[in-house]
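FAQ: What does the model actually see?

It sees only this:
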Amino acid sequence: MIITNARLIFADGIRGGLELVVEEGKIAEVREQTPAGGEDVINLDGNYVAAGFIDLHLHGALDRDTMEASAEAFQAICDFHASGGTTSLLLTTATAPIDNVIDVLNAVRDCTQRRARRSRATAQIAGVHIEGPFISKAKCGAQREEFIQDPSPDAVRQLLEHADMIKRVTIAPELPGALEAIENFDARGISISGGHSNAWDEDARAAFDRGMRSVTHTFNCMSSAHRRGIYRVGGLLEFALSEPQISCELIADGHHVSATLMKMLYRGKGARGICLVTDATAGAGLPEGSRFLLFGRDCVVENGACLLADRSGLAGSAARMIDLVRTLIHAAEVPLHEAVTMATENPARAIGVETKGRLAVGADADFVVLSPELDVLRTFSGGEEIFSLEKNRIIRRPHASFDP
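And it is asked to produce this:
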């Protein structure tokens, strides 16, 4: 398959006059455009092509939630987010008893193993992000406080028995046992993200020294500079802003973070220091006024946001990745190619996935076709189309089905 007559979005800019050659689910060539035609040539009429978006933090969509631990729920979530250009995602858990979290890990393993047997093409699910229960009660946000626990050696051991499915863990560095847990997770190649945390600056530094290289939904549910005695001391936020090796998640949905804060983060971290994440919950894709649950908490969709039903706080987002890209461009004046980098190459690097997030020879043929208005026109995973706006539907392929 040849993808031609498109403007390709790279980390350093946008270039026309090039085309992609796809063979066996991989990008085989990125070359000068040729006049060749045929049924294997897809002419994109000058639209943009970006690497497929990678969402590191995503709970659900369409009234379905990762915590259901079911193939049907996972399918609905993947399908909805394909319409926003997402070709890889980490199904994200909520704060819950460890047994419920392990149910999710087992269900994801079962689904990915089925897909591996059915097709060589790449699945959308890249693994699981464990968000909770190792978080601070003072910064729990919409998470259920009654299930929060310290990262005891036994709880960590239970999770590490499923390390093959875990790509990322959010943990509050100040909790008893957190530093040892961070070391153990890092030793198994799991990305560590500080979040839902009331850490002081020195807590964050200690976690960094043991392997933490990311923070979860920057500005939301994290400590910031405040007084300790007569002194002003930084929190997790300031540590993340000041440490070049820390990657910052950002929910750029227009609700979680103001334009000024987005600009501040962009100026402080630069294009390579930010990973866009949706933190989408089951309310994503539902009509205005819809009710849904976040692991037992009543929530509502209102004014394009997901809220706790009592309106006391946000409950994740209703966004897709393309919505974040557009918001970042319009609200924070970030160039298109840099916003796309935050949705592709940066998250791939954060979880050590070398074959994704780039339009480069040898990378997986995961890409998204965007109009000049930044609407998602088509989404491809492993070289096969999984969403088409023109057809207004998800295109089910063997590799995009969890059905046995």
